[in-house]
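Journal club prep, shared notes

We agreed each person brings one worked example of a sequence with its structure written out as tokens. Mine is NUDIX domain-containing protein. I'm keeping it raw so we can talk through how to read the token line rather than staring at a rendered picture. Sequence first:
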Amino acid sequence: MPERRGRENRPGAQDDLIRAAGAVLWRDGPEPGEAEVALIHRPRYDDWSFPKGKLKNGEHVLRAVVREVEEETGIVPRLGRRLPSSTYPKDDRTKRVDYWTARGLGASDGHAVPNDEVDRIAWLPVREAEARLSYSHDVDLLREFAAGPPHTWPLVILRHGSAGEKTRWHEPDELRPLDARGRAEAQRLAGLLTAYGPARPISSATARCTETVLPYSRRTGAPAVTDTAFTIGETDTERACERLLELADDGVPVIVCTHGEIVADLITGLCRTLGEKVPDEPSLRKGSFWVAHLAGGDDGAPAISALERHGAYGEGR
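Then the structure, token by token:
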């Protein structure tokens, strides 16, 4: 499975590329095991497609997809697995739309409200939706959705935010806090990670890691707990990987905040154990995260259905 990465639409970056984001929004159909997807009709173009829209200047792709889906359907989405991007010519430029699967949060998935840009919303079974769609690239996207598991849960591996120069800190290392940049990253990450819905935050028992997940914990009300299995100086690769796999087996959305020294080992161990190709660059910058979208396999064990990487301000390499 190819790694699908999120890049920020920064001024001066990829000026020839129009960035957009959207989702295949779905809900359970009336028949067991049947999914219905939401198509929108835009009177300006008289077409049927999936909710999507362009990134604003400097907007993170995760913020953009949540905003666009809500604006065009009235539904606040919870993002699921990453889908392939669609790329096509647009006004002498190239347009790329990054897509996710998504479900509505709470009871909102049955109460879409059209707006000025969208005059109709139709919930259709996959076969009927395929016949209704106006564009071939949307048909391809729908088939990708149908080929994978609809129900997934996220396992997030997060590297703590910026915490100054280690060599300039003369107190115990576990007390080294986030610096000003790291605190800003933590605030941004709290908003980005909520795109995947509520999750259980677990942190290394160091100040810089607990401070990184604190804004998320306060925002969602989910209490953050510390775990020495992910704490530098208290763990090793084998123990950290074993604990991560235990969390994967729980089948519950989780965010693990840890250190750069073990991030690559965690991703490598997770992928190898669950039969996924290890990314070429499994490491993370500070304030960045991997999301492994997990689904139950035929044997009941979790499997990785998609893997993506982001940073607080863009790509999280």
